[in-house]
Write a structure and sequence with these properties.
The complex is a heterotrimer of chains A (272), B (231) and C (230). Chain B has helices spanning 9-43, 49-61, 65-79, 82-89, 98-124, 128-136, 141-171, 183-194, 197-225. With 231 residues, chain B is an all-alpha fold. The radius of gyration of chain B is 21 Å and the shape is globular. Chain C is an all-alpha fold. Chain C has one domain: Orthogonal Bundle (MetI-like fold), CATH 1.10.3720. The chains are: A alpha/beta (272), B mainly alpha (231), C mainly alpha (230). Chain B: One of its GO terms (molecular function) is transmembrane transporter activity.
């Protein structure tokens, strides 16, 4: 009984996944677009205190895509480390979760064109982190399964990195003093800083250690779905919807205003 | 993509390191928890100590370990005065990291509640006649306890204690939630670096099974080898 | 530090902690914890009883295979089994199990593995004489098991079942790893959002778990007592 089960497991694991039907058609047929989004990372994806629904910049983009497909949007909450497993296990069709495009990831999943970009920065108590050289002497909190961790390890191998399941846990550790800094997308840190009850005690030192371009995560080999996403994203930029979405979360009237230095279709972040 | 390709050396080393952390963490917590559990069981033999032991075991056994770990790491630290927090979190020679500290504290206190109950059951299982006989042959109460009652009590509770030691090994996996770099934590790390979900989780799963089998085997060997009169 | 007291924070978030977004959205918080625990308690009672009986009647290789499977299930951490059911079953066997169900499935399997041994020990604990006497009166093996042995064995198993239920309630907290919003997860969520009073919030959740576990123990013991006194 055990051996046959094991044999079955091994056999199915060895056979490469064969794309059965086209995912784009499947989604239209099902009438539902299943999307993984963050539930604890404002302003990209978080649970709204009043409506108890997951909202945010990523969710707005997912909504636009679902609208153009003419299907219902269904959100599955995720933490960073679960994003690729969720796609691999066919639990979701797309991942809209502040998902940095990397060569390694592109080997196992596909990405749309980037719809957001920012640099990897740090949040620390005022005065603890003034220049990148100091990173090696600090305990830095990061999220499991993010590029932040990999970049940090690669560029500052002697830094002590402590990994958490999601950014809010890392932030709690920072506020406790368990770690002296946390590392994240600059845009996310600006939002986090804006929401801190004692924000005057913290700062985001003005340097970044990498550029992060973020796209939609798509199961490997779904070329038609990727093409549809790219067309949609470019169109959202052309019609101004992309700007509207950005302004809703980072515009001048928000808690975390941030100039928009990247437009869909750009190759890099514009210098300020 | 999910084809069986073995993990590269650095990732195997990382997983091996995680396994070592799991072993050390579990061993330290079991040792400390045995001492604490024993103290609680002894306290439970006195009228004033009994409510204390009861309250302790009820509180720690009726709440999830994950919540207790969150409490020690995220909650309790926030309650401490600023100066104590700074001291705890800054590096000191031979002083563990805050993650290690909270993980050890949480797992020890939780495991001790189970040890205390099992040792108490063992002590209760020794017939009163044993006490009386030991005192009758002229042993002092301390001696009677140490040489007559205790060995029998431990023999009664040994299987339950071994089971709790195994639980401690498995429960140590929860400390990954507070940033402790043990086996489950490193398996997630390797998974997200290599995307080899099957291999990374497979290694961790087999690691835990191996540890449990080792404990079981060690226990069986010890049980057979010890003198007949203690069996 | 802030105008908001810890009690205000708990009060403002109380519905979210108790039943999540229900009835407008999915059930969460304490209510989901209860559903998860009750579902896996029921599942593991049925499966544990069946496997325990199998342990008592099977012989030879099948029995060893079953023993091996049960030992394996008891050797791996619940967290790992949840990963396997949630992420690896769909990849390996193309079976998709949604979050809530995969947690329930993992908890049921592990809990049944423990209960099977309790059931088996209960059955074995009934003296051989009872079997012989019942068979002599003309009952079949199955009738003997069902009418004579199991009722007596169940009484001995009651403490194991109650213990297992408490364990199940506590283990539902591990659902956080696959994003299922039960009590531990929503507490962490609220604590992370308001960023003040983490200790008070976790203590509050602890009190809820404590009440639930103690309540189940108390009710279980009471039912067990009255059921067999009549």
């Amino acid at each position: 009984m055990k051996t046959t089960l094991l044999a079955a497991l091994l056999a199915t694991a060895l056979i490469p996944a064969i794309a059965m039907a086209d995912r784009l058609d499947d989604i239209k047929k099902a009438g539902v677009l299943r999307v993984a989004a963050f539930d604890g990372n404002p302003p990209f994806g978080f649970v709204d205190e009043k409506t108890h629904k997951i909202v945010g910049l990523d969710v707005d983009y997912a909504n636009e895509v679902a609208k153009r497909l003419g299907v219902k949007l269904e959100i599955t909450p995720t933490n960073p480390a679960n994003r690729i497993p969720l796609l691999a296990a066919n639990k979701v069709d797309l991942v809209f979760a502040n998902f940095t495009i990397t060569d390694e990831r592109a080997k196992v999943i596909d990405f749309s064109v980037p719809y957001f970009a920012s640099g990897q920065q740090f949040l620390a108590k005022k005065g603890t982190l003034k220049n990148p050289q100091q990173i090696t002497s600090l305990r830095v909190g990061a999220d499991k399964g993010t590029t932040m961790e990999a970049t940090l390890r690669q560029k500052y191998p002697s830094a002590q990195v402590v990994l958490f399941d999601d950014t809010p846990f890392a932030l709690a550790a920072l506020r406790n003093g368990n770690v002296q800094a946390i590392t994240q997308d600059g845009s996310k840190l600006v939002a986090i800083l804006g929401a801190l009850p004692d924000k005057d005690k913290y700062e985001i030192p003005p340097f970044s250690i990498s550029e992060e371009l973020e796209g939609v995560g798509v199961p490997k080999g779904e070329t038609r779905l990727v093409a549809f996403l790219n067309d949609t994203l470019h169109d959202l930029e052309k019609t101004g919807s992309a700007q509207t979405i950005y302004d809703r979360w980072f515009g001048p009237t928000t808690k975390a205003p941030l100039p928009r230095l990247f437009k869909i279709g750009d190759a890099h972040i514009r210098a300020e | 993509m999910t084809a069986i390709a073995w993990l590269d050396r650095p990732y195997l080393l990382l997983l091996g390191h995680g396994l070592a952390v799991t072993i050390v963490l579990a061993a330290v917590c079991v040792t400390l928890a045995l001492a604490l559990g024993f103290a609680l069981a002894l306290a439970g033999r006195h009228r004033w100590g009994l409510p204390l032991t009861h309250a302790y075991t009820a509180a720690f056994r009726n709440t999830p370990l994950l919540l207790q770990l969150f409490f020690w790491y995220f909650g309790a630290m926030a309650l401490l005065p600023e100066a104590a927090r700074v001291w705890l979190n800054s590096p000191h020679a031979l002083w563990p990291t805050p993650e290690t500290l909270a993980a050890t504290l949480g797992l020890t206190l939780y495991t001790a509640a189970y040890f205390a109950e099992d040792i108490r059951a063992g002590l209760r299982g020794v017939p009163a006649g044993q006490w009386e006989a030991a005192l009758a042959i002229g042993l002092r109460p301390a001696q009677a306890f140490r040489f007559v009652v205790l060995p029998q009590a431990l023999r009664i509770s040994a299987p339950a204690l071994i089971g709790q030691i195994m639980n401690a090994v498995k429960n140590s996996s929860l400390t990954m939630a507070i940033g402790m770099a043990e086996l489950s934590y490193t398996s997630r790390q390797v998974e997200s670096a290599t995307f080899k979900t099957f291999q990374a989780f497979g290694f961790a799963t087999l690691g835990y099974v191996l540890l449990i089998v080792l404990i079981e085997t060690g226990w069986q060997i010890w049980r057979r080898q010890r003198p007949v009169w203690t069996r | 530090m802030d105008a908001l007291s810890s009690w205000d924070v708990i009060k403002n978030n109380l519905p979210w902690l108790l039943w999540g977004a229900w009835p407008d959205g999915p059930l969460g918080g304490l209510a989901l914890t209860v559903v998860l625990a009750a579902g896996s308690a029921l599942g593991s009672a049925v499966l544990g009883l069946a496997l325990g009986i199998l342990l008592a009647v099977l012989r030879g290789v099948p029995r060893h295979a079953l023993l091996g499977t049960l030992a394996f299930l008891r050797a791996i951490p619940v967290l790992m089994l949840i990963f396997w059911v949630y992420f690896l079953l769909p990849i390996c066997l193309h079976i998709d199990v949604p979050g809530v169900w995969s947690v329930m499935c993992a908890l049921t399997l592990i809990s049944a593995a423990y209960l099977a041994h309790a059931v088996y020990a209960g059955i074995e604990g009934i003296s051989k004489g009872q079997w012989e006497a019942a068979l002599a009166t003309g009952l079949t093996h199955w009738q003997t098991l069902r009418l004579v042995i199991l009722p007596q064995a169940l009484r001995m198993m009651a403490p194991s079942f109650i213990n297992q239920w408490v364990t199940l309630i506590k283990d539902t907290s591990l659902a956080y790893i696959v994003g299922v919003g039960e009590l531990a997860m929503v507490t962490a969520q609220v604590s992370n959002r308001v960023m003040i009073y983490p200790a008070q919030l976790f203590l509050f959740a602890g009190v809820l778990y404590f009440a639930l576990c103690q309540g189940v123990t108390w009710a279980g013991n009471r039912v067990a007592k009255t059921a067999w006194q009549s």
